[in-house]
Write a structure and sequence with these properties.
single chain, alpha/beta, UDP-N-acetylmuramoyl-L-alanine:D-glutamate ligase, six-stranded mixed β-sheet, about 40% helix, globular
Length: about 270
């Protein structure tokens, strides 16, 4: 099959392969599209934690975005880890130049193991500038709490936080409900015209490393192929849930999910 669309991923690298750029490339590819990258940082990590973070110079990040897009125009962009003011400002400038309309922002702030991946000044710029430029922002509950300075314990709290993000300038919000204490997963898709609660069975496992990165990349892929934003969220959530339920159980900590759950390898390549 030929790729259905082209997705540019702006994010950090995860040496263990479960999250970040590595998860993003696997997701976009598994869903039938063409992945391009602009790497913002190189992390040394495994399923038990983050050992170190090495920054990529902001001018090199801009070069990756602009030089790649000049030759192969992305149908959508997915943004992940933006850990410093220099990085986020360089990305903002480059987005103004490449002029891609479909942009999904996963506001990566804390790793699955608890390591902080963004500083406070960068969060301020994300809230005041970047949030207004994207089509959708996809925070989990801890990230939504940081962005809105509220406590989220219920679905009603999620809706309240989503409304605050809209007032900040977000066009569409997907707050992921995995941190709520419930047997049912409830994700909230929210914009000025609708509130939609997407329900799924919660899978009892610690192996959820990279689920946020994967979900945002899946949304970007479906959206780049012409699906509506709401439909893209619904389909991406199904993809991630199946990836969790078929996870390979690698590592001693929070293991990765199965990005290849959509792929059937043809016989001659087995």
């Amino acid at each position: 099959m030929k790729p259905k669309s082209k997705v540019l991923i702006i994010a950090g690298s995860d040496s263990s392969g479960g999250a970040g750029i590595q998860a993003d490339i696997k997701t976009v590819t598994a869903l039938g599209s063409y992945a391009m990258t602009a790497i913002t940082a190189v992390t040394s990590q495994n399923t038990t934690g983050v050992y170190s973070i090495a920054s990529i110079p902001p001018k090199e990040i801009s070069a990756q975005i602009e030089f790649t897009s000049k030759d192969i125009k992305p149908d959508a962009i997915k943004i992940g880890m933006l850990h410093s003011t220099g990085v986020i400002n360089s990305v903002l400038k480059s987005l103004n130049k490449v002029k891609v309309k479909k942009i999904i922002l996963d506001p990566v702030m804390i790793s699955k193991s608890g390591t902080k991946l963004i500083n406070n000044n960068t969060i301020k710029i994300l809230k005041s500038k970047l949030i207004k430029k994207v089509s959708l922002i996809t925070p989990n509950i801890p990230e939504a709490e940081i962005l809105t300075k509220t406590k989220i314990k219920t679905v009603e709290d999620m809706i309240y936080a989503a409304n605050i993000l809209l007032k900040m300038g977000a066009k569409n919000v997907l707050i992921k409900g995995g941190h709520l204490d419930s047997n049912i997963m409830r994700d909230i898709f929210f914009n000025k015209n609708e509130i939609s609660i997407i329900k799924n069975r919660k899978i009892n496992t610690k192996n959820t490393h990279g689920t946020g990165c994967t979900l945002a990349s899946a949304i970007a892929t479906y959206y780049s192929c012409g699906k509506t934003l709401k439909k893209s969220c619904e389909m991406a959530i199904k993809y991630v849930n199946h990836a969790i339920s078929t996870g390979p159980k690698y590592g001693k900590g929070n293991g990765p999910i199965n990005h290849l759950n959509t792929i059937n390898i043809i016989k001659k390549f087995r």
